[in-house]
Design brief:
Blueprint lengths: L5 H96 L49
Subcellular location: Cell membrane; Membrane
Keywords: Cell membrane, Membrane, Protein transport, Translocation, Transmembrane, Transmembrane helix, Transport
Main location: membrane
Length: 150
Amino acid sequence: MFDIGFTELLVIAVVALVVLGPERLPKAARFAGLWVRRARAQWHSVKDELERELAADELKRNLDAARQTMHETEQSIRAGGDAVKHEFEQVRAEIDEDLSNRKEPPPSDEAPEPPVDEPAAETQAGPDEPETPAEDHPQSDLFGNPEQRR
């Protein structure tokens, strides 16, 4: 900031001692220190306020850029949706045109008869063959009544 070296400070101190004298020099030094502290505090306050303003400005620019990107994305999505809708309408029109151009066969008065299945051969025992349970199986009945097994 200021290019003041040690020799310049020494010269200023000697001049202050000669001009003010030993009695008023400590009060003047305290007063000068107070002014320097106030100046530094004011400088830091201005610096912090500038940094906050710059951060707020940068945040606004980022927000505007995000809004612009969102708007562009929305426009591209809408354009894509409109293109899909237009294509859908074209396909729908083609299908409607094909259906209207298709000649339908005249409806017949007779309903088609359902196919008749042939009856399956009877596998059950006839009236002259009574069903009898087979008792001489080599495998025993595990789930039956234990008294019947004897």
